[in-house]
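For homework, think about our next protein:
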Amino acid sequence: MQELTTAAPTRRSTRKVSWDVVRTACVVLVMLYHATHMSRVTHPELSPRVLTFPYQVGASLLLVISAYFAAATIGRGSLRRYWWKRMARLVPPFVGAVVLIWLVLRFLRPPAWIEPSGADLVHHLLMLWNWKPLEYAFLDGSHWTVPLQLMGFTFAALLFATKWGHGNKIVWVMWTAVLLPLAQWHLRISGVPETYRMLVDGFGAHRWHLFVAGVAIWMVSTGRLGRGHFALLLAACMGAQAVHNYIRLPDGALDCDWGSTIAVWVGLLVLTLVACGPDWPLPPAAARAATWFAGISYGVFLSHQTIGYVLLHYLDVSGVPPLLQTLAVLVTGTVVGWALTEVVERPAHDFLIGLYDRTFAESGSRQSG
């Protein structure tokens, strides 16, 4: 009974609408980044964009938000149900989006594009690109966040089941998650053995600071972490983000994408204000729009990039102005994401949660009998 009552829908109504606003903004920034910048990086044959947004910020902040809500909800009900609920939310729409993208590339791709094989579909569903991206190609580059979220929720559940997931010990874990990758940064960019690179990148060690930032923001907002300690930890996360954005150029020099770095820094401060401050007073229509889009944001995120690139190609060869092309990607991504949410994400989630509750309720009945 405890598991069922902790899942009551009244909790959602008390959440700040400002969280829906920032989640919506992050997904829109991701769409703009892909439609105006990465589209031409990936497909340079496209016409130059009139306006570009070249900053990789939205996806990183979405990981921070994900970690925040993981920390906020992990104590509700059983850990097993907590983990199952996250898997039920993340995996089915990912599978649905991958199959849809594969079909689009298979049958609607531009003539010069490579036709994906059945093996490509299987490799992407297994997320093998997370370990060997040069060997297993992405069907959609946006999906790099999915295995990190799956691993993050799994690790959170395992950690919370031990003494290291509580009290002061969790703070030591957080500092380790930030400082350990930083200590190995020079190795990561120095031509290390493939096995080392595969493990470090596969487990997303160079992005652990984003999860730490999300948990730290939740802890300071609930009084579990002092403001001074939080400021030091957030500064360390910002430093880790800057280091993450450093690359080694062919001539051996180091270069940093400071635009994206500063954008993430600003985003972290905004998320802190959202968590610690009052809810934003929005007109009812704007609040409803933000809440609606936030509800389909995962589907939009999963499905907009590659399908958007295909759409951009056909619009470009038809002479549609670049600004209208970008608008078309935003609208199409929203529509497809809404359909994915309605057809796959919500029904699959409800079915899997119902299956879980029936299974363990029946198991409990048999044991008591």
Observations:
- The longest helix spans residues 322-368.
- The beta strands are 246-248, 254-256.
- The two ends are 17 Å apart (CA to CA).
